[in-house]
Amino acid sequence: MPRYSRAVLKLSGEALAGEAGWGVDPNRLAHLSDQVLAVHDLGVQVAVVVGGGNYFRGRMADGWGIGRAEADNIGMLGTVMNALMLRGALTARTDADIRVMTAVPIQSVAEPFIRLRAISHLEQGRIVILAGGIGQPYVTTDYPAVQRALELEADALLVAKRGIDAVYDKDPNLHPDAVRFDRLTYDEAVARGLKVMDTSAFVLAGEQALTMHVFDIAQPGVMRRICLGEDVGTLITAAGRTVLSGAADLS
What values do phi and psi take at 9, rounded to 5? Predict the structure, then answer.
């Protein structure tokens, strides 16, 4: 029996990209689609918030001579492209109804995000893919992921990372002595200055006591394992105690 009845997956654009870090890799897209369906097949209601960093990121604005607001608008369109790609891959693998909803109205390809309509889709067993962030510049996908999880009354937010399997006190790819956290509280993470998400998103999640899992999306069946009760990666909650795993083992 799954421990969560409704979950939101935060999926970065980079998770869809190949080794070049740009565009969409068919193998990664297939892997992510299978992960989402593995959770949906448990009877868990699933919504996915997608990023667009595999096409364009707001912080690239200066290099291109583009204003930050304009750059973020371009990035939002990138999230729509990823959402449509993911819908296509999921549709090819399941008879379940897949809906794309966007914060930026694009009626010819997707529905506008309306909270109660999105909840209705989930309750009817549909997979909902959320694109366009919150429709405003100067925020990354982190904040929309937390906001949508709260709006949809999700039991947990699953934060998929690429190339890192949990939260560490420093970058384990650069520091072999990095300490891995099995469990964290939001207060402890903020006190330690851990870069889990954008500060505004992390503070909102902590204020609203949103349960969060941070994990490596490359692990086979990882989201299914989490929904079945296994604490893969790092579990972050509003209360409890911090649990360390010790130094990173990158051998």
Answer: -100, 125
Cβ-based neighbours of 21, under 8 Å, separated by 6 or more: 14, 54
What's the confidence (pLDDT) of residue 166? 94
Token code pair at residue 226: 């989490």
**pLDDT(162) > 50:** yes
Show the tokens assigned to 206: 């902590």
- The predicted pLDDT at position 109 comes to 93
Mean pLDDT of the chain: 90
- Digit-coded pLDDT (tens) for 37-53: 999 999 999 999 999 88
pLDDT score, position 249: 45
Q: Give the whole-angstrom CA distance, residue 213 versus residue 46.
A: 15
Radius of gyration of the chain (CA): 17
Q: Residue 97 carries which side chain, given as an amino acid letter? A: D
Which regions of the chain does DSSP assign to beta strands (E)? Answer: 6-11, 45-50, 98-102, 111-112, 127-131, 156-161, 167-168, 179-185, 212-216, 234-237, 243-247
Evaluate if residue 248 carries a pLDDT over 60: no
Q: DSSP state, 143? A: H
Average pLDDT of the segment spanning 91-95: 97
- Phi and psi angles of residue 79, each rounded to the nearest 5 degrees, phi first: -65, -35
In order of their start, the domains of the chain are 6-247 (3.40.1160.10)
pLDDT at 167 over 90: yes
DSSP symbol at 148? H
Distance CA 17, CA 78 (A): 12
Strands (E), 40-134: 45-50, 98-102, 111-112, 127-131
φ, ψ dihedrals at 51, nearest 5°: -95, -175
